Amino acid sequence: MPTLHPYIFSEDARKQADFYAKALGGEIVDVKTFAEMPNAPEEDKDKVMHLVLKVGDLQIFMADSSPVRQGNAIDLTLVYESEEEARQAFEGLAQGGKVLMPFERMFWGTSFGRVVDPFGIRWQISTEN
Question: What is residue 37's predicted lDDT score, i.e. its pLDDT?
Fold first, then answer.
């Protein structure tokens, strides 16, 4: 059975991953730079080629890329067992970002909110039904 890993391209993957680690209670478990790649251009050697951020059982992959073009075709959705965990994640991601839909109880029975983080990534935070 395959697993799905979000892969986020960023103008500063380390800074963005640090933000997510704090906001979501995760940790950066691996960083590979272009310096590790043979014949990498000198100006790219400190850039992140591949970063792994672990949040619970989820792994989010990240890399430096410039320029980054944001689209509106996808949201990243995190579903939590408890409302407390979900609210903490929502509030953490909203710091310096923009709330699109406040985190609150929905008519379908879960708590749900939608936010754009300070890096332009859209998130849906929900509780299990």
Answer: 87
Q: Where are the domains of the chain?
A: 7-64, 76-127
Q: Measured between alpha carbons, how far is residue 94 from residues 49, 51, 79, 120 in Å?
A: 27, 22, 16, 11
**Does the fold of domain 76-127 match that of domain 7-64?**
no
User: Residue 97's CB: how many other CB atoms inside 10 A?
Assistant: 19
CATH architecture of 7-64: 2-Layer Sandwich (3.30)
Digit-coded pLDDT (tens) for 57-83: 999 999 999 888 888 889 999 999 999
Q: In terms of C-beta distances under 8 Å and separation of at least 24 residues, what long-range contacts does 68-74 make, across chains too?
A: 68/9, 68/10, 68/11, 68/120, 70/120, 70/121, 72/122, 74/122
CATH fold of 76-127: 2,3-Dihydroxybiphenyl 1,2-Dioxygenase; domain 1 (3.10.180)
Classify residue 127 by its DSSP letter.
E
Q: Is 78:124 a contact under the CB 8 Å cutoff?
A: yes
